[in-house]
Please model this.
Amino acid sequence: MIFAAAEHQGPIDGVLLHLHGAMVVESYEDGEGELLARLRQKLGPEVPIVVTLDLHANVTQAMADNASALIAFRTYPHVDMYERAWQGARLLERAMQGKVRPKTVIARRPMIYGLDRGRTQQGPMAELIARGAALEEAGDALAVSICAGFSRANIRDVGPSVTVTVDMTRGDARPHGQAVAEEFMDHAWTTRDYQSFTLLSVAQAVARAKEGKPGDKPLIVADYTDNPGGGGYGDATAFLKGLVEAGVESVAFHAICDPDAVIAGINAGLGTETTLSLGGKTDPAMGGGPLTLTGEVTHLTTGRFIAHGPMGGGVERDYGPSMVFRVGGIDIIVITNNGQAVDLGQFTSLGIDPTRYTTVAVKSMQHFRAAFEPIAREVILVDTGALCSELYTPELFDKVRRPVWPLDPI
Model:
């Protein structure tokens, strides 16, 4: 679609693309690099191409060479997508008017992860973002983007990066920009061990949930390792199993992705007590196998609603046919289309007010915080042993460039 537009809607004066930056397809490890290289070939060297990116982009040399400017999000949870789009649009406008000639340089280091996995509340990521914004404000760079990388990608160029977009109408722009990028990446390398989060075991998280009392604000428990936003299957059952076996009351659980269970619940009907096989069907080794549970189907919906939270933007979400399955004191949301919990509407659209529960469980690493941290008495993260576990071993990363930290003693 993009190439057809470039070929048939010309002449093209400029391009503004909103990409993610960690696309991997079967035929190309660097999906966006290939896209941009082909687009550059079609449009020629002079047409400005401005790209916005997720700050978890695995930015490659090909992406930097073929995009005039790369502009990454500066918040995680990502609540500045609108602002970055306008930053890109303003830069593209100046480039099309001939006021600036943007060129992007890149610096990287032999590391799979770092920068606190992109957390922007504190630490090295926040420090570098602030320094980059100051350089932009002072006119020393058109854009400075710090990307923590998408560390679970088994590709050659996985890992953090810093890109600096400079104005080539200034004679010393390129070496100055490269020096800034290298200095910033030196800081990322030096702080590569920094980590602001702690993962609890299932038993520890269940024990914390049992401490809740009626009337408390909810304890938010995030299943870090079954995060659909990171590639998790969304059907890990280890934490749910722990809650059920411990008889924890007043729990709202989002979610188990299990289309077959939803169909079985629909067939059973509203208000009906039924026994379902729930979750754990994609790969039982990743976070627990199916649970056979008896409960009541209390709500059924299409799974469509408008998300109005900090990451929602008034956009419709569609999780497919969805239900609430009540087992003891636990209201389990079961969905058809996989997705992490980022909006209160994922509960309220199913008749659940998460503020009225003692414990609210979500499957997410960090994005949930934008909507759920404001309603929480406390937030904890649980490791259920699912696909997004913090495991970095050579057999899991057999395509990555070597030597690389933490696989090699660099």
Observations:
- The mean pLDDT is 96.
- DSSP finds eleven helices and 17 strands in the chain.
- The longest strand covers residues 291-301.
